[in-house]
Amino acid sequence: MAELKVLISRQDIAKRVSELGAQITKDFSGESIILVGVLKGAAIFLSDLARNVDLDSTFDFIAVSSYGNRPSPTQELKSGWDSTGEVKLTKDVDQSMKNKNVILVEDILDTGLTMTYLKKMLFARQPRSLKVAALLDKPSRRKLPLEGDYVGFKIPDEFVVGYGLDYAEKYRNLADICIVPRE
Ligand code: IMP
Ligand code: MG
């Protein structure tokens, strides 16, 4: 693989995550929250975000997979992944969401299919409030109208890795967000 170009540095990520944490702290002042991370991509973002939130807070995790034939990594890199829009829950949360302030934490909003599905599913459990925090957002790829409530960075339509995001399960441990060249 050709060398990866840094799109967002670890310093810029840290600064923005602390701003998002401060905003959440302010918005939920005096209340408690549950951060629900979408595995695996959001794990690193959630762990940093949580340490920047000064509130009574708990974690939970969910995992999803999409139906349909996942393309090869090379194909996914070239044109993204146009799934059927059907998302399957492979791991549910461990606690009740009823009357809780829930913040869904995702690595990146792309077509919006995953988050739309998850919001609908969790909303049915009658949380007190339901918000979406996403480190990255590729608005130009959206297929369903969806806006994050706490968004770190809007980025162009590039395939990115690092800080939790993968290419064929690799590069999640890079400290910076990098662009994978499409050749
Ligand atoms: P959506 O349902 O299309 O919004 O899917 C979002 C999911 O697609 C993310 O949670 C990532 O797993 C994956 N994804 C989208 N864009 C990228 C990218 O640039 N790099 C790595 N994963 C991505
Ligand atoms: Mg993901």
Summary, kept brief:
The protein is built from 4 helices and 9 strands. With 183 residues, the chain is α/β, with parallel strands linked by helices.
Descriptive account of the structure:
With 183 residues, the chain is an alpha/beta fold. The protein has a single domain (11-65, 84-158), classed as Rossmann fold. 24% of the residues lie in helices and 31% in strands. The strands form two sheets. The chain has a six-stranded mixed β-sheet with strand order 4-3-2-5-6-7, with helices on both faces. It is globular and about 50 Å long. The protein binds inosinic acid and magnesium ion. The site of inosinic acid has 15 residues, from strand 5, helix 4 and strand 8.
Which helices and strands, and how do they pair?
Elements lengths: L4 E4 L1 H18 L4 E8 L3 H8 L5 E11 L6 H7 L7 E5 L9 E9 L3 H11 L5 E9 L12 E5 L5 E2 L15 E3 L4
Parallel strand pairs: 2-3, 2-5, 5-6, 6-7
Antiparallel strand pairs: 1-9, 3-4, 8-9
Helix pairs in contact: 1-2
The protein binds inosinic acid and magnesium ion.
The site of magnesium ion has 3 residues, from loops.
| CATH architecture descriptor text | 3-Layer(aba) Sandwich
Total number of domains: 1
Gross morphology:
globular
| Percentage beta strand | 25-35%
Largest sheet, described in full? 6 strands, mixed
CATH topology annotation: Rossmann fold
Overall average pLDDT:
92
Which percent bin holds the helix content?
10-25%
| CA-CA gap between termini | 10 Å
Question: What's the β-strand tally?
Answer: 9
Placed side by side, the strands forming the largest sheet appear as 4-3-2-5-6-7
- Heteromolecules bound: inosinic acid, magnesium ion
Low-confidence sequence ranges: none
For the record, the CATH class is Alpha Beta
The number of helical segments is 4
Instruction: Output the radius of gyration.
Output: 16 Å
Strand-and-helix sequence, N→C? EHEHEHEEHEEEE
Classification by helices and strands: alpha/beta
